[in-house]
Specification:
With 304 residues, the chain is mainly α. The protein is built from 16 helices and no strands. The radius of gyration is 20 Å and the shape is globular.
Length: 304
């Protein structure tokens, strides 16, 4: 399945179930927020930058092999067999399968980096030397791939993929994207999430169970919010909000199993509703914010 910034919540569903998912989110946020100076820094950090042609060719072959290895390292859900069994057993087995496999894969992730994150809608890329843009995209795509498949790669291969980005980011923090008119309210929500203790995490899990019957209206409300972001030119802003939420999900102490069992979808709905609340109808906001209402007894913070 291809990834896109329009469906960033789906990408988030995969990231929260991967050991290196928070780091992948960091790389994608760096790409979304990069200005021309940051893209030049990323390009300069490329392993092949300034090397003779023969060395560049050798490094390109090594990178291609590393990507091929990463592509086979994490199973996809479509490749995992039917869980079978009775309804209760099937449900439990499905959750286990969701912990083990992803919807997308590393080629889809690389296309997302090159075609969406650093695509034609990226303001800084439009005026950049194409050679510089390509090198910067290589560094970001390599790092995202290396952290995606971190547990499946030998340490030297993972370091080969992630090292250039890590070096650039360590030298000076890379810019981060703006989160739009709802930024203060998003910060409030995610700060509360990061501060959760076990009792707070249990409340989220119970809220997921309580809202499970709302799957259909939830999906429609998520689609409506994504469409609102598209027509208002805020797709990249909404995607950035979801990626920040991926990092907050991990910081809150939630696990891959929580992600598989629906806690991520509950959080992603709250983020979607909050980020696009100024363009959504009251019914959609109620559906998307229902988990937050159950957990805290409050409506979503007001954005914009």
């Amino acid at each position: 399945m291809p990834y896109s910034l329009v469906s960033a919540a789906t990408l988030g569903f995969d990231l929260v179930r991967l050991p290196g998912g928070e780091r992948v989110a960091d790389v994608l946020l760096a790409g979304l927020g990069a200005d021309a100076a940051a893209l030049h820094r990323l390009a300069a950090g490329h392993a092949a930058a300034g090397r003779p042609a023969a060395e560049r060719a050798e490094l390109a072959v090594r990178a291609r092999r590393a990507h091929e290895l990463a592509a086979t390292g994490v199973p996809q859900l479509r490749d995992i067999g039917d869980p079978g069994g009775t309804a209760p057993d099937r449900s439990a087995r499905l959750v286990t399968l969701l912990e083990q496999g992803t919807i997308g894969n590393t080629p889809a992730l690389e296309r997302l980096v090159r075609d969406d994150v650093l695509g034609p809608e990226h303001a800084a890329v439009a005026d950049l030397d194409p050679a510089v843009a390509t090198l910067a995209a290589d560094v970001l795509a390599d790092a995202a791939t290396g952290w995606w498949a971190a547990d499946a790669l030998p340490d030297p291969v993972r370091q080969q993929l992630t090292g250039p980005y890590a070096t650039v980011a360590a030298w000076e923090p890379l810019p981060r994207p703006e989160l739009g008119p709802a930024a203060p309210a998003l910060a409030e929500l995610l700060d509360e999430l990061r501060a959760l203790d076990e009792t707070g995490r249990r409340r989220w899990r119970l809220a997921v169970e309580a809202t499970r019957l709302q799957r259909r209206p939830w999906a429609a409300a998520m689609h409506g919010a994504a469409w609102a972001a598209h027509v208002s030119g805020r797709t990249r802003t909404l995607a950035a909000a979801q990626l920040v939420a991926v990092q907050a999900f991990g910081a809150a102490g939630f696990t891959a199993r929580d992600g598989a069992e629906g806690v991520w979808n509950a959080l992603a709905g709250c983020v979607q509703g909050l980020a696009m609340g100024d363009l959504l109808d009251e019914e959609s906001l109620t559906v998307l914010g229902a988990p937050w209402q159950l957990v805290t007894g409050r409506s979503l913070p007001h954005g914009g």
